Amino acid sequence: MPGRKDGRRNSAYERGNWVFVPHEADAWRPARVVTSEVGGEAQLELDDGSRQTLPASQVASLDLCGASMNADMANLVDLDAFSEGSILHHVRKRFLQDNIYTSVGSILVAVNPFQRLNIYTPALIQQYRMSVHATEPPAPHVYAAAAEAFDSLTSGGGSQAVLISGESGAGKTETAKKVLQFLTEVAGASAKATRSVADQIMESNPVLEAFGNAKTLRNNNSSRFGKWMEVNFGQSNKIVGCRVVNYLLEKSRIVQQTPLERNYHVFYMLLVGAPPALKSKLKLGGADDFAYLNKSGCTMVPEWDDEEEYKIMMTAFKTLEFTQAETDGIAAVLAAILHVGNIQFDAQGDDNCQVSPSCTSHLASAAACMQVGPDNLETALKSKLVKMGGARGSMVTQNLNQKEATATRDALAKAMYGRMFDWLVVRVNDTLNKAASSSVNHVGVLDIFGFEVFKHNSFEQLCINYANEKLQFHFNDFIFNEELKMYKAEGVPYETMTFKDNQRCLDLIEGKPLGLIKLIDEECNLGKGSDQSFAGKLYNQFNDKTGKDPNEYYVRNRTNQDLFTVSHFAGGVEYDSVGFLEKNKDTTSDTLLSMARTSGVKLIQTLFQRDPEAPAGSPVKRGGKSKLKTIGGQFSSQLDGLMTSLRATMPHFIRCVKSNHDKVPHKFDGCLCLDQLKYAGLFEAIRIRKAGYSYRIPHETFARRYAICGNNLLQLFNQKKMSNIDVCKRALETATQSGYVKREAWEVGKTKVFLKEANDKTALEEYRQTKVQGVATQIQSVFRMFRIRKAVFKDKYEKAQREAKIKAENAKNGNAAICLQTIVRGHFIRKRSKDLRLIVLLKVAMTKNDDSEIEAAIEEFDGQRLSTLAEKVIHQAKTLLRQKREKGKVMQDIMIALDHDDVPAMIELVEKADQLGLGSEDLVLQAKDQVQRIKKKRVIHKKLLDFLDDDTKYSDSIQELLDEAKALGIDASFRKKVETVYKDVQPKLEIRNKLRRGVEFIDVKAIEGGIAEVDTMIEQMGKEYGGDASSYKDFCVIERTAAEKILKMIELERALLSGKAASKSDDEGEDDEDMDWEEEEGGCRLTPSYIELCDAISTEPSKRRKVHLKQKLLELAGSRKQYEKVCRSYKWGRIYSSWKFHVPEVGEEVPEDDESFYGLHPLEAFHRSLFNTEEFFNRRPEEVGHHAEEKKDELYDSVQEINSTLYATPSPKKRDRLVSPRSQGRGAGATTTGLLASGRLSPTGALLDSSPLNKSSGRQFKLKGALDMGSGHLIKGNSYSMRKSENVGLSDLEKKMIASKKRVEDKKKGLQATMAKLSLDSGKPQAWH
């Protein structure tokens, strides 16, 4: 057969070839070339049957599918053709067969299936644990990667690392948990552990996921932070501890989420799953009540139970040994963040703001959760400390405008959550890493964010992609070095192998002295740095023409100078520099820090305490200058530490891929997956492999397959007369001599054969195929001869023998089966016939609902051995009987309780009836109505009793209470007594109220008329009740005293102003304004408009607003004098209207406020009237000196008298002392006065005993029967009689009714004692007050 001298593959456009063609939906699809013409067009048929036409020149440049297109390739290194299309095709094919794992050399590709697969069982863990050293490699699986890492660790390979990466929703978190599950299952816990460290490691995941994961558009449980977990192993290769390091938590999510995304899970878990007592304490409601949760339009996640997740988290807290105080502190911090988010600000000019009045409750709730003062919290949110005057200047408080205060509020929320998350990781480490000193090696698990490219990329994406660049460099370096190590070990020449890494891209980002990160930090430390100046410095530093350090990985946008592009290993990403500096600072003001350190919550104090490792945004002194510690600088340091840890370990790579955006199973989005494979650096690994020898085949495998290529070589191999390495060399030399492969395309190492490209392997396969075809021709001729002979001489006879034998055996087996079935069926039917008959009878009785028939049917089963079905039916029947009896008993007890009006029993029975499903029965509804009626009757009756006890109570609503009492059926005699008292009190109430209105409005005519009416009423009382009229002077004593003091104040005012006017007339001459003080004072001084404005002034906290209200009052008054008079009158009304305002006790200081709006202070007026009179200042000097001491004493006494007059009103104790001497006398008048001093208006308002007659009114009051305080109505005798306990056994209900009756009797005795206290002494009338 002629050889192929060029050693190249067939042209792609040749008819019948399979190639990978570009596809809009699936990126690449396999297609067969149907027709092709050089220079024309080629028609291709895709694997789904559709056809596509492409230019022949384009088809010629496409990649061939290769011979392994239809094979199930678990490890894609074995492909005979490496290309984007071939990698994607095999990953897709395995995914659609539910094989979500595929290997590419030492790299594991895991495609998220978005469904639960039964491939994570303990049995599989043990299977992969034992298959590490098997002859055939195990199927790709995350357990296989974990098993390889663990085996390397236990075999002396040192510390290991499993590096998991991928975009959001690719399954990184679940993959990391499976790795940890494998390690904890096979390694367990050390013998010294008091609690299983393995359990604690697994329980740390729910805690970290609750606080660090959230629902995004791409993933319902997306990790919003990077995580490095070091699982430590001791000498015995058992787990002794674990250490967790977190990276770059997405704090911006706390205050703002993309539409249809959620905040971190823990907020929703707390609101749904927390105990009611905790939610009440923290003032928590639903997610829709909080601004940080309700703006995205998503508060719930399908297939995610927040309540159940909360229970799992709390269980994990206990396993991780969190204290109750710590979990309470965490809840308080979370609640404080939610309440802080509800605080809104109203602008007050351009440079000031205030908390919106509607948000004061949220401010108070946040302060209560943080245990700080609301004023302190408000001040911290509305202001900041600014250093003025240079380095030696002082700190000045500067108010913030509305926008700045809102940003400060969000900064507080982010700072609290970010610091709490860092503390949480440290606290988890304290539990997991107790035995760290006994650690020898570790297995690190890295779960970190994948490469991100969005329409708008900012500082967060730069940090994430920077981390991926670092990891990709480590990945490339490891793969390249592994290749070199293998070539060196195999003795294969590798001097010409070169590979370009991504070091220049890393120099652009982190290079020294001025990389991207350094430039951002430099701008942040400049006082006038901005995003625009940062973008300009980038261009000046890195542009490829005039830049100080040109870098080809940097490109500036020509139309928008704020945009720049970085060419990452996975492709170019355009970043928007706007917001870079603010996000890099992430500062927290000193005012917020100081406020947080005063918190009463220990956890908040811990989070904000001063420590040497201050968070981002804190000033750090370097070289005598204070520099800002930034997010970028911190993250860069963390990455350096991570890379140091990774370089000290043996890496194992897992690349997670998201199959589709819709998160549905069995859907493979080719374009999406291809992009992720690129971002994961998979094609970089293939590129490294292609830079050397792409295919590596062990000697034995190669010799077994290709020994047929040499003459008699296969026979020598089978007889083991030639070594495997010699067989490989002879086969390759033969293929080279035949022109199928070139000599430089292959090498034979110590254990493997190396082929340069896929073309060489394809050519070798073609050469083998020609050899196989020759051998196959010989085999086929022999086989055909054997088949003909067998068909002619043996087939018919052997077939007949087999058929006869099968027929006999079938007949025999069939008869035996029929006989056995007959016997078994008869046995079971006879055995179960009796049970079935009884079961049918019992079900019929249950259908009829007849108790006697059911009981009789149950008794039929006595002594029988019951089947499972019979036991079930009997249990149902007994349950039915029990429920019927219980319901009947409850209904009977309710009927008895209704007949006896037993309220406690009715309440208990109604609740029990609701539990039994009887709530809709008429009798139960009647009982509920009766209970509500009796409760309402009690309330009305109590109010009427209070009115009889003190006829000033409810005096304005007595008529409504009487109407309700009549509707409820309260005793008519009792209502009549209340009506009698009310009729007697009503005219006195009108007089009292009239006098009160006069005092409140400083209406002189109303005051004088009211005093006259009071005097008239006192005379009528003397005539009606007997005795001297002076005995009833305590009637309206408070109102009368207030009225007299108001009149006295008006007279004093006239005297004071008269002195002032006289002084001015002598010195300056009189003017109209000062002379109108003698105007007629008989009218009303205050109007509702005046009072409304004065009330507003006295309660207004804002000085600016208060000045505005004063001006408005002045305009309403019309003159300054009228304004001052209104102010004085308003103050008198507040001082003496003791029934309406607070009354200072005798001796209590009345504060003097120079800023008061009241105008002329009475004390000040008195002083001026004494010291500014003409008589005092016209004296001779010696006369003044002679009388100075006498005048001083005189002034002091006058001031004390005026002060007492202006500010003191009798206290309750003093009033009692004023009236007590009169009430101690004997006779009708004295008794009436004493009773009236107690505060009553009516002498007939108290409950009367059985005295024959009230002497003052001639009316007789007698209570018939006893008042039942339990039921709220009169009982005129026993309305029913119970069974005696000695005759018949009492039920529970009857026992409760007996107890209820005893309580009623006790209350009747208490009522009689109360009536005795309230009864009249010898029937004498009470006094007025």
Automatic annotation (TrEMBL):
<dbReference type="InterPro" id="IPR036961">
    <property type="entry name" value="Kinesin_motor_dom_sf"/>
</dbReference>
<dbReference type="Pfam" id="PF00063">
    <property type="entry name" value="Myosin_head"/>
</dbReference>
<keyword id="KW-0518">Myosin</keyword>
<feature type="binding site">
    <location>
        <begin position="166"/>
        <end position="173"/>
    </location>
    <ligand>
        <name>ATP</name>
    </ligand>
</feature>
<keyword id="KW-0067">ATP-binding</keyword>
<feature type="region of interest" description="Disordered">
    <location>
        <begin position="1207"/>
        <end position="1238"/>
    </location>
</feature>
<dbReference type="InterPro" id="IPR000048">
    <property type="entry name" value="IQ_motif_EF-hand-BS"/>
</dbReference>
<feature type="compositionally biased region" description="Low complexity">
    <location>
        <begin position="1222"/>
        <end position="1238"/>
    </location>
</feature>
<keyword id="KW-0009">Actin-binding</keyword>
<protein>
    <recommendedName>
        <fullName>Myosin motor domain-containing protein</fullName>
    </recommendedName>
</protein>
<comment type="similarity">
    <text>Belongs to the TRAFAC class myosin-kinesin ATPase superfamily. Myosin family.</text>
</comment>
<feature type="domain" description="Myosin motor">
    <location>
        <begin position="71"/>
        <end position="769"/>
    </location>
</feature>
<feature type="region of interest" description="Actin-binding">
    <location>
        <begin position="639"/>
        <end position="661"/>
    </location>
</feature>
<dbReference type="InterPro" id="IPR027417">
    <property type="entry name" value="P-loop_NTPase"/>
</dbReference>
<dbReference type="Pfam" id="PF00612">
    <property type="entry name" value="IQ"/>
</dbReference>
<keyword id="KW-0505">Motor protein</keyword>
<dbReference type="InterPro" id="IPR001609">
    <property type="entry name" value="Myosin_head_motor_dom-like"/>
</dbReference>
<keyword id="KW-0547">Nucleotide-binding</keyword>
